[in-house]
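Sequence in, structure out.
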Amino acid sequence: MNSFLIALQFLTRIFVVKQSVWTEKSFGESVKYFPAVGAIIGIICAGVVGAINLLNLPLLTGAVGFASLVILTGGMHCDGLMDSVDGLFSGREREKILEIMKDSRAGSFGVVSMILVAAIEICTLAELAKLSTWWLCAAIYSAPIIARQIMVLIIVSFPYARPEGMGKAFAQFTTQRTLIFSWIGMFLLLLPLNLISVMFFFSAGMASLVVRIVSVRFANFAMKKIGGVTGDIYGAVTVLAEMFVLITFLLIGNYLK
């Protein structure tokens, strides 16, 4: 339970029991609960967009849906995306890239990338809202779960690029058993979608495959640039994964319409 609460506090702005002292081991062991934290985010976001969609204003629903994902996480993953893009696409050498990524200030590349992701997600959520409230809720419930399981995959599968850092504990104390635990957790958390429609569960499965391909390719790109991944890369992967989950749900939903 302690590891789960650490994961919840780190990945969200939800504080059940505020903890200020973490050991690297307990911090690293919290990784296996990332999909469960994603489920909590998904449930809250699904409730919010489901209620807003009653107004029959799709664009407003999309904007509120995107905002809820950002607010619940405090924009932490968005910051990771911007820092990653600023560094990886700077055209500099490895050490300079790492220095740029560590800088808390957002550059033009990072800002533009975040604007594009925000626009795509808002429009995608708006289109899902037009399909049906059920499609919308199933997609925004699934997105945080799949995205945080993929984060576990990247943590386990790729070396950490820095000699130290907050993300180092993740890489140091995660194993293949952690990855398997997260896969099982994701499957069980997505399984209830079958109770609404088997196509929702199918869409989540397809989204997981799409996100796996995109995320691994992005991590491989980072490997070529800096010899590994960082906490910012973890955040970037999470944001991109959520976006591609939503897009996959929309494409399947439109095909079946």
